Amino acid sequence: MLFDLFRLVSSIPFVNILKEGSLMYTASDLRKGLKITIDNEPYVVTAFEFSKPGKGQALYRTKMKNMITGLTIDRTYREGDTFEPASLEERPMQFLYREGDHYYFMDNQTYEQIIINEDGLGDAKNYLIDNLNVKVLMFREKAIGVDLPNFVNLRVIKTEMWVKGDTSKADYKPATVETGYELRIPPFVQEGELITIDTRTGEYSTRVKE
Question: H-type helices in 54-126, by residue range?
């Protein structure tokens, strides 16, 4: 029975079991997209290169991005180096409202409210409207980012007037939506209309029929 348990544990991909029972990655597990903890902060591997110089030890060269600050670092590791996985959790939440630079979210299960500063949201702040359901990324019980739906509907509050049949202007014109986000939209879209925006690119997708 003990042998079967050992065989099961040793077959788990990408992790090693330390004596104290915690799961750890090794240098050979490094790959693009892997999330690890360095100096008590979460990082994601954005680039990876393996090399083995002659009879020397294998080298694992990486670029990693800090998931809190966004800064990128270069690190080289050797075979046998170990890393703690980044204990990340996604929680379904609803955006409630904004107060200055503070954005308030409510956990859909516990109804607990959390605050994320504007700097921590990045571009996500451009698409947040009241009652929007999102996924909040947590690291050790601290909110570090927001995962948005791929598409959101926002109302145009400012744009140029367009006269039907006017072909003298460009195919797209500047516009501002209710969150303050600025983008370019087709000339036929008018102020007050609802549009769909692709949050992955920040670009206009379609006009919403109301």
Answer: 118-121
Sign of CA dihedral 111, 114, 118, 124: negative
Maximum Cα–Cα distance across the chain: 80
Instruction: Calculate the CA 7 to chain-centre distance.
Output: 36
State the CB neighbour count (10 A cutoff) for residue 75.
Answer: 14
Q: What residue ranges define each of the domains in the chain, with the CATH number in brackets?
A: 2-85 (2.30.30.30), 88-147 (2.40.50.140), 151-207 (2.40.50.140)
pLDDT digits (tens, 9 = 90+) for 94-135: 999 999 999 999 999 999 999 998 888 889 999 999 999 999
For 160-176, what is each residue's pLDDT tens digit? 987 666 555 568 999 99
Whole-angstrom Cα distance, residue 82 to residue 84? Answer: 7
Per-residue pLDDT tens over the stretch 43-53: 989 998 988 87
Write phi, then psi, for 187 (nearest 5 degrees).
-65, -25
Residue 151: name the closest of 111, 204, 93, 209 by CA.
204
Instruction: Report the percent of the chain where pLDDT is more than 70.
Output: 86
**Encoded amino acid at 90, one letter:** E
Residue 4, CA distances (Å) to 1, 9, 11, 171 in order = 5, 9, 11, 66
